[in-house]
Fold this sequence. Notes:
single chain; Poly(a)-polymerase, middle domain; Beta Polymerase, domain 2; 2 domains; two-stranded antiparallel ribbon
Amino acid sequence: MPRISKEKGESLNFYKYICQRIGSEEVVRVRRLTFVISDIGQNETIITSGSKGEGLNFNSSDLDIMFIDPYARVYESETEVVKKGGRLPFIMNADETQPCFTQLYLVTRHQNQTLVKVSDGVLNMLEINHLGYVLSSEQYKQFHLSKRFRGKWSAKIHGPCIADEYDNTDFAWCLKCDKWIPLARPWVSRPRTAWPSPELISKIVSCGVLFVPIGCKGSINENLEWRVSFSVAEKFLIFSFSHTQLLCYTLLKILLKEIEEKHEDLKGLLCSYFIKTLMFWISEETDPYVWRPDNIIPCFMACLKRLLYCVRYSIVSHYFIPDDNLFLLRFNTNNKEKIITILTNFYEQGINCFASSETLQDYQNQSNESTESLVSRNSRLLQQIVPKFHTTRIMLRADRVFRLLYNFLHSS
Length: 412
């Protein structure tokens, strides 16, 4: 049997350590399945995302819960409107917005000239302009803030979401379009190496897109604009990652989160969405064979180098709509140079950059030997399941969820 090179051996040891600290493939799979069960167990159509929804659990892991509005649907044009179940039909108009944003105007009459009935609550969320009745993203958030959280606990608007009092969970109410939008159609057929697969692309396109209530910052119509959200597509893409890819993604998130904690003036500049976008581009351009446990250190360093490049040249294109540069006007001279200095220092240290990490600083002292009985394995997996329901207990139908959980545990 050929000897493993020193570099591969170091990567394998690091991979085993990260699996112990962040989660093995099995543990991540159980976490994800638990949230899927939780989603299914609700009266409303919800989608869990954020780090926890992706199967990750580390310090500062976040959870996003998206509720799809059952009373409205978005369409590309009036000819596509389907009269169904009393849903209010809204039409996209992106002619006057930046890439990734749109206005949504209400179709007051269907093709058969039946007048759409609008409640007083919806009327308060509409504004009139040259398009007709346009749905206000700001009023939509205010409506759900007062309706869902009044008298329960302190909550606040956080971007397109409503955050709980501890900033642990973001809740977002969004609108759905059942079709893939024209702005993102070039993504379907653009040249790529091997990832994502044609089957995955087809699955993603069939799910359509969402619209979250937030406008383009600085726009004169900011309060009337909605951002296109590809959260469902992104969840499918993350779930298709090999475990090595997922761990590289997690390492970058940990690194940036700890930068924020140590440098208050850099807080919010490099959010996890940028890291996710970066990983999608790298994965699309890379041979999937590269993402192996015995190559995790070179893979991570390549990702870190790419991040450094993107900050230096202020460019990270939106993965689905590349015309939108997520780093446009993101930095000023001072914070940009500071981030470049920090990232350059990390890159020069190699994997030792985690020596000062609160999450991973004990890497050099860890033994990678792991033996586990069936009882302790099951106990470990159960430990992954229970906190998920505790985290989301306030908004969930607990009886249905626990019934599903019971069936899951007795059949798996």
